[in-house]
Amino acid sequence: MTTHNDDVDWDRWPVADYLRENYREVHPSDAAVIAHHSAFYRRFPPGAIARSVEFGAGPNLYPLILASGASRRIDAVEAGASNVAYLQDQICHRLDASWRPFHALCRRLNPDVPATLAGALAHVNVVHADVRSLPPGSYELASMHFVAEGATEDFAEFAEFCRTFVRAVEPGGHLVAAFMENMPTHRIGPASRWPGCPVGPATVTEVFTPLTRDLDVTHIDTDPTLPAYGDSGMVLLTGVAEAV
């Protein structure tokens, strides 16, 4: 049977295992995503974006750090209770030292990122909500990392998540995203199983072409320093939203 988003208990996302497997150091793929996204964010003067959204934030802080170079307010919208708790703990109470090298790289590639990690995350507002409930046109910029293809095994639902992502910004709003390429259903930690919808540059381009203009889709090869989830790399995207 095909697993859909609503079949999954996202409140039980294994935050500690996920961070241990993926974000306790800056992997080459992280550095490549950060370099790509930093070039995107350098288009904007500091504070030029009044409101941006991290669409399905998860516990990954580096997209929030990147957005702080241009955004006065960043809504980190996340449905899973365990991810929300981690974000709130990081932003309100303590910061894991492992995020400092990520911040240093983001700031090196875009000096508009605030000088401290805490300063960068001071722009963030954690929102415990399903991204599908976001009112259309709420933001000037939307960012998404490893969400649509990791939320379902169904391609039609993947495409609908992408449309919802585009609709979150006003027409003419800016988009930046990263997808795992050909990610299958996979395990995180010793036992937990999570959905995957295999996509690549061609399918991402197919989905986003009617929704955007100035679309740019690029690829990063698989990273041997990351767990062998079964993916074949990453797909990176920038674009401008059309009316959807």
UniProtKB/TrEMBL annotation:
This protein's record includes keyword Methyltransferase: yes
Species: Streptomyces coeruleofuscus
Listed Gene3D superfamilies: Vaccinia Virus protein VP39 (3.40.50.150)
Protein name listed in UniProt: Class I SAM-dependent methyltransferase
Keyword entries, A-Z: Methyltransferase, S-adenosyl-L-methionine, Transferase
InterPro entries: NNMT_TEMT_trans, SAM-dependent_MTases_sf
